[in-house]
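Late entry, written up from scratch paper. The run itself happened at the end of the previous shift, but nothing got recorded in the book at the time, so transcribing now.
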Amino acid sequence: MNILLVNHYAGSVRHGMEFRPYYLAREWVRLGHRVTIVAASESHLRRQVPTMRGRARMLEHIDGINYLWLATPPYHGNGAARVRNMLAFVLRLWRCASHLAATLRPDAVIASSTYPLDIWPARRIARLARARLLYEVHDLWPLSPMELGGHSPRHPFIALLQAAEDAACRHADAIVSILPRVRAHLEAHGMAPHKLHLVPNGIDPGEWQAEPEPLPGPLAATLDALHAAGRLVVGYAGTHGVANALDTLLAAADRLRGGPVAFVLVGSGPEKPALARQAAALELDNVHFFDAIAKPQVPALLARFDVAYIGWQRQPLYRFGISPNKLIDYMMAGRPVLHAVEAGNDPVAEAGCGFTVAPEDPRAVADGILALHALGPARRAALGRRGRTHALAHYTYPVLGRRFLDALAGDTRHG
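Output as recorded:
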């Protein structure tokens, strides 16, 4: 099959996030398919942008995948400049639709850019190439900017997004969703019931089979000292942002001061300075902050956690479900998980790999940590093994890549 994947923010191991398009495409290439990813040159997610040198588009080959970069203007934040970036990408894609249809001759076209505006040029390419059209749902737009940003449904850009989502629901031959509880929402906007397929986020099992890279010296020394002192190490690895609700974890650490628990937070993000100030103001000597580490070092880090923590804000949008990569990493590491969330699904309960408690509730988090401590090492290890078994069965890209191909072929087993 010849697959054309349109994803504005697609990244790679060379460029950084977002990784899902790369891992899926690599799996399809391994299965004998030809894959072209069309992405924008500018993205707030990537650590490295492609070098365009004034070109309107550039072709690059990465691990058997063809990347076609379309030049778009740079931007920062979520204001008007980001909207201009989106519109520039969609317009450029529309203008080269006939060229892409004629030269690539795709059998399937996937519109997958978080925002739904790419459905129109993707549909044009699919129509010209007589290909199947698939729409992939990451977040629900325009519902997300409406509920999170307070934007009116009558705002012109929101209305445009809504028209695009409605068009995608009506005209796509199949719809893949990362979020497991979106059926009612999508059907309300025109999706026929048989179109929906659920393909969550996942991990590359090869990254967990290789020898992990050693941790930085200060981080390794701190973990060694905490374990030598008999502390239960509750760890967090990832972005320190508002959505991660790490202030709740620090408030739980305050409740557990003087006890047998220590907290290790590894990563970077916009909220990290404020979190460090919060810990200093509370004089939390049981909390330790460290800088972000390289991706190949993550397995070694997670192996040193006794409990892995992931928390969320209390957010109505989570009623449609969640599919966090961080949680899958925790499962692959075989760590028991403390999950502070209220959502339409509960991956920790599904896997039986830890405890779920209420979000933004320091008492609930502290009680969950003490309950995991009381289990003892053997029972915590059993929870971790369940998580790893569940992840290998349901969340690896060899599994997910085939499920996605089922959706492209019209199979209805995964809805």
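The longest helix spans residues 377-394.
(Scratch paper discarded after transcription.)
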